[in-house]
Amino acid sequence: MFTPIPCDDQDLCTDDTCDPAVGCVFTPISCDDQDLCTEDSCDPVTGCIFTPISCDDGDACTDDSCDPAVGCVFTPIACDDDSACTEDACDPATGCVFTPIPCDDGDACTEDACDPETGCVFTPITCDDGDPNTEDFCDSETGECRHALYHPADLNQDWRIVIGEAIGYLAGWQQGTNPIGYAIRGAYIWQNGEHYTYDEAVSPPLCWVLAQGS
C-alpha cells in the first residue's frame, strides 16, 4: 500500500503539486491582475495582494487618475473662470490663479471698470454743466471738468470768429473805442493769416482765432 505524501508548504504564494519523479513541487503562483493601476505582490499567509498605486504627481494643476490599460494619467485642469476681467493661470503649488487685469487707460477723464463678459470698459466722465454758452470738456491730466465760455461773437460756437461775425459783433459797440477800428483790425488778421490766442481779459476782444478751452 502506497500512502500519498502531503505536498502542502502552507504558502499561499505557491501552487503545490507532486511529481512522481521528483516529489513535491512548489510552483510560485502568478499574481498579475493585468491592471496597471495596482502593484501586484503575494503574501504567504493571505495570497495575492493588489495594492492600488499612487498617481499623485504633486502638481495642483493636473487631475490625477489611473487607467487600468495605461497606468497613471495626469490631465491638465482647466483654469477658466469665464471672466474677461482676469488672467487665468495655474500654479503647480496652489492650483488655479485668477489675476484681475488692470483696466487703467491712463486717462483721468474716463471711469475705468471691467465687465466680466467684455473686459475693460472706459467710460468718459460727463462734464455737462447744462449751459449752452459753454464748451464742457475734461482735463485728461487732472480729470477736472472745465467749462469754457464761448465768445459772444462766435455765433456758431466753433471757436473761430469769421469776418462776418467779427464785423457784426464789433459794429454793435457804440461807445468807447471806435468799433470800425476793431473791424478793420479783424479783417487785417484774416487777410494775413495771423492767429491770436483769445484773451478773455480784453474787452472788447482784440483777438479772433480763439484758443479752444482757454
Describe the overall structure:
The chain is mainly β and 214 residues long. The chain has 4 domains: 14-53, no CATH class; 58-100, no CATH class; 110-148, no CATH class; 150-214, no CATH class. It is built from 2 helices and 12 strands, in the order E-E-E-E-E-E-E-E-E-E-E-E-H-H. The strands form 6 sheets. The chain has a two-stranded antiparallel sheet with strand order 1-2. Strand 3 and strand 4 form a beta hairpin. The longest helix has 13 residues, at 179-191. The chain is rod-shaped, with a radius of gyration of 46 Å. The N and C termini lie far apart (131 Å). Residues 192-207 have low confidence and may be disordered.
Nutshell version of this structure?
10% of the residues lie in helices and 33% in strands. It has 214 residues and is mainly beta.
Question: Roughly what is the average pLDDT, rounded to an integer?
Answer: 81
- Main pleated-sheet profile: 2 strands, antiparallel
Number of domains: 4
Strands of the widest sheet, in order across it, are 1-2
**Structural class of the secondary structure composition?**
mainly beta
- Taking the alpha carbons of the first and last residues, their distance comes to 131 Å
Order of helices and strands: EEEEEEEEEEEEHH
- Enumerate how many helices there are, as a single number: 2
Beta-strand residue percentage: 25-35%
